[in-house]
Structures are given as C-alpha cells and as structure tokens.
C-alpha cells in the first residue's frame, strides 16, 4: 500500500503528516515495502506526525512517536514542493474535516461517532479533474442499529 499520493501534482495525501527530513518526492518513492518503519524515518512521519496549533517548527509528538508541526512548516513545505493542499487523516475532527495553516492542510476523518465516544461527523473529500475539492459530510445517526456477527 502506498505511503502517500500526489493528485495532479498539487494535492499531497497521507495518513499522518509531514516529515522534517522529507525534501523531495523521490524519498517517498524509495521507501521499500513491506516495512516496519523505524523511528525516526520519513515512513513513520507520514503515518504518525500531526499538525498542532500554536507551535512554530517541529516538536516531539505527544503520541510518543514522530513529530508535531506548526503552520509555518506547512506553508514552507507547500512552497518548496509547489503544491496547493495537504490532505491527511489520523485525528478525530468534530465536523469530519478541519482546515489548518490558512487552508493549506485539511484533516479528513471518515468514521462518524468514533468508537462510540465522540459525537463527530464523518467526511469524504472528492477532488475533481480540475482539482476542485468538495466535501460530503455524514452526521452520526441517533437511531443506532444493532449488528450481530456470525
């Protein structure tokens, strides 16, 4: 499974976030799979790093693996890599999606009522052939259906 995707050369997608050692796309292409990503590595950062409001640069992630990064990191990365948007997941957001860094990064979360503990919506991001992004939002239902597994 790929660690990331680049849509139309302008929308960069991954599960977690950015890496302080990621400088070009070839570094991602060179990641051998399967892999148990070492820490630190670009692979672990693509899976585990998170944006964080109120910080500048990089700091250790509260998850105990990878990093947290500030809006300044997002802006510099988008400029250096000539991209318009970073799309990532990995964190519950109440409306299903949440922008960061002046709309240069968006977190998408696609599991409504996550683990039965959050009253969050889910979102799906669609990118059309002109790279226009749109969201479909799915609110949690109030009528829960019991599911039994055979």
From TrEMBL:
Amino-acid biosynthesis recorded as keyword: no
Superkingdom per UniProt: Eukaryota
GO CC, any one term: cytoplasm
GO MF assignments: metal ion binding; protein serine/threonine phosphatase activity
Cofactor(s) in the UniProt record: Mn(2+)
Keywords on record: Hydrolase, Manganese, Metal-binding, Protein phosphatase
UniProt KW Nucleotide-binding keyword: no
Assigned EC number: 3.1.3.16
Pfam families per the UniProt record, alphabetical: Metallophos (PF00149)
Catalyzed reaction equations: O-phospho-L-threonyl-[protein] + H2O = L-threonyl-[protein] + phosphate; O-phospho-L-seryl-[protein] + H2O = L-seryl-[protein] + phosphate
Major enzyme class: hydrolase
Domain Serine/threonine specific protein phosphatases: residue ranges: 1-142
The name this protein goes by in its record: protein-serine/threonine phosphatase
Source organism of the structure: Parascaris univalens (Nematode worm)
